[in-house]
């Protein structure tokens, strides 16, 4: 695994996302700067956040589509402020909204971008065919891009981003609208990019996709990095503990299962635990303040006494970690409700009859 010190640095890129928000890269809450040193080329970095968190704005600043108000970013030794042309030569970009020409075929797109990338003329046909096969576009390669479905347009945009083997590939929600088979093809393509020793920065709303591809993740809230680390680190530090599921068997033949002893056992040994579900002989608890070893030790040593037939212990999912951070943005955003909207205050309701009389 190769290391290129400071070859890809995100250094205090600060941009106004809305009138009240600033986009900052920070390590936790402070300090105000976040420096990703010793960035590994063969890494897939996931950038997560709800809609409006600043992910696409981040990409637009890195590609020069949006002005940077302060700070800088270094890609392969070149600054996006002073050497954006050199940055473009070392970067492939799949934007959130497909930048394709409806009057060109998929193959013509790849030919065009291969020439722009400086692919030798004798290699262009082979490179274009590689992109077509890699992303599963052989049936549509010679059709006009304007006739493509949303999923096929995303495939074409991703193939364009991979043309020329750029050291850094930015993919902004590349699998939106793709069917499961196409999504797997794209995942395989990204894995191939990583095996070539190149880097990928990916945004996605699919936690499954992030767990399959990303080696490190950051979650943004209102334009700010709230956490950074591997998936396991985020689950351990920001998750809600463990989910314990118990299946209770009958104490004797002909008698119904009795979950009461198991419920009492959980309350005594795991104070603060929360019962998520209870169905006949199934119990499910969320246990926040306990080690995994303690959970297994206590359950195994009391399995027979509590008549536990089966049990499982699972960690909080990445979805839950994401939701916990997403709540912060939703709580900070006050959305005014129409007086007749669901959840609006009763005092704010307007009577149609009284309103008409007032107007008259």
From TrEMBL:
GO CC field: membrane
Q: Which Pfam families match?
A: ABC_tran, R1_ABCA1
Q: Which PROSITE patterns match?
A: ABC_TRANSPORTER_2
Q: ABC transporter domain location, by residue?
A: 12-247
GO MF entry, a single one: ATP binding
SUPFAM superfamilies assigned: P-loop containing nucleoside triphosphate hydrolases (SSF52540)
Q: Which InterPro entries has this protein been placed in?
A: ABC_transporter-like_ATP-bd, ABCA, P-loop_NTPase, R2_ABCA1-4-like
Q: Which PANTHER family match?
A: ATP-BINDING CASSETTE TRANSPORTER SUBFAMILY A ABCA, RETINAL-SPECIFIC PHOSPHOLIPID-TRANSPORTING ATPASE ABCA4
Q: What is this protein called?
A: ABC transporter domain-containing protein
């Amino acid at each position: 695994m190769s290391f290129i010190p400071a070859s890809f640095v995100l250094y205090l890129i600060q941009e106004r996302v809305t009138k009240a928000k600033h986009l900052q890269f920070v390590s936790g809450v402070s300090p105000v700067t976040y420096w990703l040193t010793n960035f590994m080329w063969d890494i897939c970095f996931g950038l997560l956040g709800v809609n409006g968190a600043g992910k696409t704005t981040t990409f637009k600043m890195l590609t020069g589509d949006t002005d940077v108000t302060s700070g800088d970013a270094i890609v392969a030794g070149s600054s996006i402020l002073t050497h954006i042309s050199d940055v473009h030569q070392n970067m492939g970009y799949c934007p959130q909204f497909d930048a394709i020409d409806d009057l060109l075929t998929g193959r013509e797109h790849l030919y065009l971008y291969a020439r722009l990338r400086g692919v030798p003329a004798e290699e262009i046909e082979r490179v274009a065919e590689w992109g077509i096969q890699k992303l599963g576009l052989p049936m549509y390669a010679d059709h006009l891009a304007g006739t493509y479905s949303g999923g096929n347009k995303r495939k074409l945009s991703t193939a364009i981003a991979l043309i020329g083997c750029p050291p850094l590939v930015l993919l902004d929600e590349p699998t939106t609208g793709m069917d499961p088979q196409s999504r797997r093809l794209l995942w395989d393509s990204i894995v191939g990019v990583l095996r070539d020793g190149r880097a990928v920065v990916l945004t996605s709303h699919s936690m499954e996709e992030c767990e399959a591809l990303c080696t490190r993740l950051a979650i943004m809230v209102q334009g700010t990095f709230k956490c950074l680390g591997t998936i396991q680190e985020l689950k351990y530090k920001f998750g809600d503990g463990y989910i314990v599921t118990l299946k209770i068997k009958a104490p004797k033949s002909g008698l119904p299962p009795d979950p009461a002893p198991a419920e009492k056992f959980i309350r005594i040994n795991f104070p603060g635990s929360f019962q998520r579900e209870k169905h006949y002989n199934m119990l499910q608890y969320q246990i926040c303040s306990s080690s995994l070893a303690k959970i297994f030790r206590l359950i195994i040593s009391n399995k027979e006494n509590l008549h536990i037939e089966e049990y499982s212990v699972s960690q909080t999912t990445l979805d839950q970690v994401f939701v916990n951070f997403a709540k912060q943005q939703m709580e900070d955003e006050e959305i005014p409700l129409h007086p007749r909207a669901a959840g609006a205050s009763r005092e704010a309701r307007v009577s149609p009859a009284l309103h008409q009389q007032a107007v008259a």
